[in-house]
């Protein structure tokens, strides 16, 4: 059990901890936002190179995943305006949604990090076996020669679901053996989809944090196993951060100005904190002070908030606080934050809002009813941040708001209908001020 009453715990933190213990919705404002800190090992150049690596792989990806044909092998999602929600919630500035629920391959934000890390490993192996990354055609990686090399290796990852889809489908497509370790929160359709694609799925009767530890151990036993570590991988982080360059281009194509007077406020759902931190980091590189990142977590699993507010990061979990960690947001059901998210976000994250499951369903209903957008429960919580923004003095009326929707298009139609019947009922019963 971590020491949460130690010297880092101020009076402010203890009021906050009481609210968290009580499962109340709250907002934590990061006291270190915009302070100057030493640079860390992932920097502008690492992210720049990650974007270039994904461009080199585009010819391969275009052949491997037909839904990337339109974008010529670049795995990306659109940004759209949400005027109905803007009016409904009386927001002054422009309200946008980033449709990562439509991301090719995994139908979630995990297509950014998971695919990138598998491609890095594949490129490494290929180069060791005579592939020239500067002059050879990446479509050649689909040839028998490379598939045979890849098939000697097993790629393993622990996941609540979507990272498993992203890593598992990319790995098996390249010819790797893939093994996904899943926590008891994993939904049946995600497990089935992986198994149908020849991926070995191991289910633990345990929470995500313990499943990761078990998976890491299992991978260590096998010299031909490569482990994608959701709790600490800098490659995953870099993959997520490639979003920065792309969003900058998309907003510029939409003629949306982003500046200190017209900041971009971005609302990102956080589980372990890896994907939202990577994206926020990538956006900070592009927009600097003009972007204001805010995370949103379930009231039952505020893991990144707890780690950052206490300064204990990965050394504390929501179970230490006595929380049950239970939420219908399977993608956010992560009790212990990542080893790197808190460090990389220390001066870059504006704050974190928490949301009840009840309101999460209301937002899912709101998205469906007002905008006809279908997203999974984890993906919609950004709306809580949007509502909160009205009470944040640093956010001017001129701000542009970007809700990052993180997953949904792979949810089977029948499961989605069940989610939405429930969500629309709750939306109709909810009073929004
Ligand atoms: C994984 C996931 C998140 C959160 O990402 P973390 O890296 O765990 O913080 C949010 N939404 C969905 C749909 C996800 O699958």
Count of extended strands: 11
**Content-based structural category:** alpha/beta
CATH level 1 class label of the largest domain: Alpha Beta
Query: What is the number of helical segments per DSSP (H or I, 4+ residues)?
Result: 16
Which CATH architecture of the largest domain is right? 3-Layer(aba) Sandwich
Q: Biggest sheet: strands, sense, closure?
A: 7 strands, mixed
Q: How many independent structural domains? A: 2
Features:
Probable D-serine dehydratase; Rossmann fold; 2 domains; globular; D-serine ammonia-lyase activity; lyase; seven-stranded mixed β-sheet
Question: What this model shows, in words?
Answer:
The model has no long low-confidence stretch (mean pLDDT 95). The protein has 16 helices and 11 strands. The protein folds into 2 domains: 267 residues, Rossmann fold; 124 residues, Rossmann fold. The protein has 433 residues and is an alpha/beta fold. Helices cover 43% and strands 13% of the residues. The strands form 2 sheets. It has a 7-stranded mixed beta sheet with strand order 1-10-9-8-11-3-2, sandwiched between helices. The two termini are 39 Å apart. Helix 4 packs parallel to helix 6, helix 4 crosses helix 9 and helix 10 packs across helix 11. Its cofactor is pyridoxal 5'-phosphate. Pfam families: PALP. Keywords: Lyase, Pyridoxal phosphate. Belongs to the serine/threonine dehydratase family. DsdA subfamily. It catalyses: D-serine = pyruvate + NH4(+).
